[in-house]
Write a structure and sequence with these properties.
366 residues; mainly alpha; two-stranded parallel sheet; 15 helices; oxidoreductase activity, acting on paired donors, with oxidation of a pair of donors resulting in the reduction of molecular oxygen to two molecules of water
Length: 366
Amino acid sequence: MSQNKISLTPEQADALGRELDAIRERVIADLGDEDAAYIRRVIKTQRALEVGGRALLFAGVLPPAWLAGTAMLGLSKILDNMEIGHNVMHGQYDWMGDPAISGRSFEWDTACPADQWRHSHNYMHHTHTNIVGMDRDIGYGILRMSADQPWEPYFLGNPLYAFLLMVLFQYGVALHELETERIRGREIRLADKREVLRAIWTKTRRQTLKDYVAYPLLAGPIAPFVFTGNLSANLMRNVWSYMIIFCGHFPDGTQEFTVEEARDESRGMWYFRQVLGSANLTGGRLFHLLSGNLSHQIEHHLFPDVPARRYADIAPEVQEICERYGIPYNRGPLLRQFGTVVRKIVKLTFPGTASATNVAPLAAAA
């Protein structure tokens, strides 16, 4: 554990909670036509990119058509997963009353069943953010991403597992609810997850048949070009999603916590933990759109049900509040943040690794 711990008194934590609650309430009260038009415009753009990309892949024997079609299809999958699927399933647009974008029923274009995602991500991750032993996003049951995770020889493969998780990210996310780390530790049996496995298999089979069987068969003699285009588009989405998500949770400066340190925390201390366990990415409007606005991971962890398009507007206010309370506000460019993530993955391959950037803060003083 580092000696450079950060703490708030109960009074400070309560005041922090009131200030951040006020931001959320103000934004929720202001939601309206512009927000509804925005998400519908993004959905329309995503569908146009998918239709156009798949059409161009049917002319994929021509290299420019294949490249353009693959890029368009990859962008459509990124938008579907990041700015649409992830945010809609958080209930960010439930206030519209549109069943097509209901957070409780939306299904996205990826291998992970949406119902499982709503539990493992919306509940487990966002409730227990960066609490070692409770937040399964810490390593996805595959990697060692905290020095507080007990080392075992299995983790000598940390860099390899990280690379495989990156290129196969949709399948890593699909297996999230399987709790592979508990199966590996013999806490539970694979048979105990029979229903979870059935749902994963059903969704993965449907996605595989769509991208790698149905569309290639429709292309006839052009099938190899459509197959490789779909494969490349999925790879684009997987690598991009992995980088954005890992850079929002694990670069230098983010912290992990123990169960004891998060027990009986107040609303203000919950906010405190969200900021310390998150990091933002700097960039332009297109970058923020393609990241699903998870480039504002701090604001997303504070307000997961607020439409993500609003994060850029409230980020300066959140940063100013953090500065007043002496709370680090972690932000930086994608490549720099990702470089520190890679370094952490390599360091945690070996036993006895500790870092001042991945330890929990002191609880609020009594």
